Structure formats: C-alpha cells, structure tokens
Amino acid sequence: MSRLIIVSNRVSVPDNQGAAAAGGLAVALQAALAERGGVWMGWSGKSSGDIEPEPLVLTEDGNITYALTDLTQTDVEEYYQGFANRVLWPICHYRLDLAEYGRKEMASYFRVNRFFAHRLAPLVEPDDIIWVHDYHLIPLAAELRQMGFKNRIGFFLHIPWPPADVLFTMPVHEEIMRGLSSYDLLGFQTKYDLENFAGCLKREGMGVENSPGHFSAHGHNFRGGAYSIGIETAAFAEFARKAAAHSMVRKARQSVEGRDLIIGVDRLDYSKGITQRIDAFERFITNNPAHQRRVTYLQITPKSRSEVPEYEAMQHAVAEQAGRVNGAIGTVDWVPIRYINRSISRPVLAGLYRLAKVGLVTPLRDGMNLVAKEYVAAQDPDDPGVLVLSRFAGAARELRGALLVNPYDVDGTANALARGINMPLEERRERWRGMMDHLLENDVSRWCENFLTDLRAE
Ligand code: ADQ
After folding, report:
1. Do 452 and 393 share a domain, yes or no?
2. pLDDT score at 19
3. Which residue in 4, 35, 254, 360 has the most C-beta neighbors within 10 A?
4. In a 3-state reduction of DSSP, which class is residue 353?
5. Does residue 209 share a domain with residue 74?
6. Which residues contact 299 (CB under 8 A, 6 or more apart)?
7. 367 close to ligand 1 (CB < 6 Angstrom)
8. Residue 296 shares a structural domain with residue 226
9. Which ligand 1 atom sits nearest the alpha carbon of residue 23?
10. Active-site positions?
11. How many domains does the chain have?
12. pLDDT, tens digit (0-9, with 9 covering 90-100), for 298-331
C-alpha cells in the first residue's frame, strides 16, 4: 500500500499522552496515516517574524512523521488572514459583500503555496499519494506538478463551493480554477458543490465534463466527487452515554432542572447564522409565552479568527444582542440565553448535547456542519432530542429526520423551535433512529476510506 502524505494549513500533532489534539477529523486522518505510514505537513501556527522560516521541524510518532513549518509575519497576515480568510472564506460562503481583495494578499497566497511545495518536495517519494486539505492550499498540486511530481494528488474542500456568478467576482478565479484542475481527484462535501464546480468550469470554456464526475481542463484529466464528511459516531455516542457522571455535566443538568434546554455550538463565525438564531429564539418566546421561564438557550461559541476585523466586530455584535434579548424577555428568576465564549472538551460537549431537548444548528451556509451530526450521535435512544437544522448546511442533505429551516426566515425557525420542543416521544424516536443509523454507517473512517480508494484508482 502506498505511503500517504497529508497536507493541511494546520496539523493536529498528538500531545505527550498520544491523544489526538482535536476531534474526529484529526483522529481519522491519523488512523489513515498509521495504517499506511506517512507524513502530515502544515503550518505550525507560529510566525518567524520578518526572517525566513527555519527548515521543517520533523516529529516522529510510530510510522507517522509530523512536518511543521513557521511562516513569516507578512505571510501570516497576507496568505492566511488576508486571502484565505478574507477572500476565499467569504466567497465560498456566498458573502461577496465581505470579500476584501488586495493584490499583495493574492500574490502572497500563491507564493506561500509555492513555499509549501518546496518544503514538502524533499519528503515526497515516487509512490506516495498526496492528500491536500481545504481552501488554503488550492494551488499546491499545480506547484508540485511544475516541479515534476507525477504522484497521485487529491484535494478535499471542507467548505462549500459557490456557483460561477459568485466565484467569478474574485479577480483570480481563473488561477484558482486552474489550481483545482491540477489534482487527480477533487472531493466536495455535497453533490451541489460538485455541480457548482462543474458549472464554473463550463461557464467560460475552461474545461469540460466528459462524463459525470470526469473532467478535462487546462490539459489535465481528473475526477470530482461528493464525499460527505462524517464524525466518529460510535465513540461520540459512548462519550455521551458516560457523560452524566462528569461533574460539569451534572452541574449543567442541575442548573436547568425543570426547564427544557436548547443548545447551539459554533465557532464565532458570520457563516453560522448566530444573530439570526438569537432573533428566532426571541421570536419563539414572544410567540409562545407559555414557554417563558420554561426554556434555557445555551449558546457555546469559542472566539475564532479574532485578528480578522469582521470577526472582531461580530464578537461585540453577538454579545450585545444576547444581552439585549436577555434584558427584553428575561425575568428576575430567569436568564433566557446563556452565552459562553469558550472551548469545551469533547466528553463534556457530548454530555451537554445529550441534555438538550433541541439542537439548534442554523448556519447561513456551511460545507457540512459536524455539530449537527454530533448532536444526533449524543442523544439518548430512549428519549432523543430534536435537531433543527438549516437547509443550507451540507448535513441537511443527509439528516432527513431533522426539522429543516431557512435561517433567514426568523418566523419559520421560531415555529420549528416550538415544534421541536413540543414533539411527541414516538416521533422523536423515529426521526432520530433513521439519522443515527445513517451516521453509524457513514462515519469519518468510511469517508476517509472512500476518498483514498478513489484517489488510488487510476
Ligand atoms: P467548522 O466551520 O469549524 O468546520 P463544524 O463542522 O461545525 O464547523 O465543526 C466544528 C467542530 O468544532 C465540531 O467538531 C465542534 O464540536 C467543535 N466545536 C465547536 N464549538 C466548540 C466548543 N465551544 N468547544 C469545543 N469544540 C467545539 C469546517 C467547515 C464545515 C465542515 C468541517 C469539516 O466549515 O462545514 O463540516 O470543516 O469538514
């Protein structure tokens, strides 16, 4: 079996105890690397200031090598905060209004990808297969090809891919499309993202789809497919089963005794629809006064990308809004919204999901949304909660037992909340069972295996 090289902007290096630093995705990629032996390369998260970064730092763990590089401060600001997070992220989430184009940032994006390719090159052997992750590194395969590498190279995009009319507002869209065309296999979260990509390719005659999922563009033949990412379903369900014993979960349970809990868990990001969700919660209470003092809405939202101005502004906006709504509908003995800006360990998170009667997941646009899947996996089979899910999350294509909502429609979301809170047990069980069976069958290991099998196939 060929060795595997994974490249992503950030790398999950296991800690001293050998535990994976993060959630399901890191665990699945580490398992895939351990099975075949391999390398995981990416940015250390550190800046080298204004001097050229040192050579790669290699850490061996069994048959996996972690290879990390620093970036200069200029590269961090222009490639990462600039082009990746202020152009590609908003454009791929259909937010043309938030994209900030700058020539320096665009140039830096391509320069850092060339730098990554040159740092990676000495580690690559002829039989290795290379799997590149996410929007930070689209041009990487083109750079490796230019250096003469003939390896199988695949790319998986974790975020949505927009339609041509949205993508083409970006000045360097042709170079980005050319970059994608240099891979052997392109993986998207859903078939809608794949269709959007095919549409972009065809629109200006950049390429053709010879048969479904088989493309030719810029002199290269490649494939594209939908590979919906999953979670480590069984392990997460196990966390949730055991979580009741955890002191933090016990305290949370006691503090909502006699009330129904609604939970929202998201990075603080404008794509997640947090302000619209708070509006919907307020509307739900206003329209259903019988639920006043009977529900608590817990929103857990770690800060993210605070150095990017749009995110900093959002931190203030959401905190203010939560405070305003608490002031407007709260009573002397009831705080309707508990708003928390911190990271929670996975076992505790699983326990909190299980306590909640409704999981409220309402992104305005999301590649997949793993929170929706985690909420379902964490439920008690005898008394499961209800998932209220945005139709604009990739997960909505799979989780048919959810109550699907349009997050821009505040009244519609408020109505779904009411329906979720009042749903009879039989209906909850039936909806949940179908979703859970799907998640057990299509977990993150299956996703990984499906992608790598297709990438290996000529
Ligand atoms: P994200 O935009 O980060 O991921 P999501 O898929 O929901 O969104 O994953 C977030 C992860 O962070 C979940 O595993 C969640 O449990 C965890 N998390 C969130 N808040 C937390 C908190 N307070 N404490 C601890 N953990 C927390 C991107 C794309 C998604 C795509 C994923 C994977 O934007 O669309 O589903 O990658 O491909």
Report:
1. no
2. 47
3. 360
4. helix
5. yes
6. 263, 264, 265, 266, 274, 277, 278, 322, 337, 338, 339, 340
7. yes
8. no
9. 14
10. 158, 366
11. 2
12. 999 998 888 888 899 999 999 999 999 999 999 9
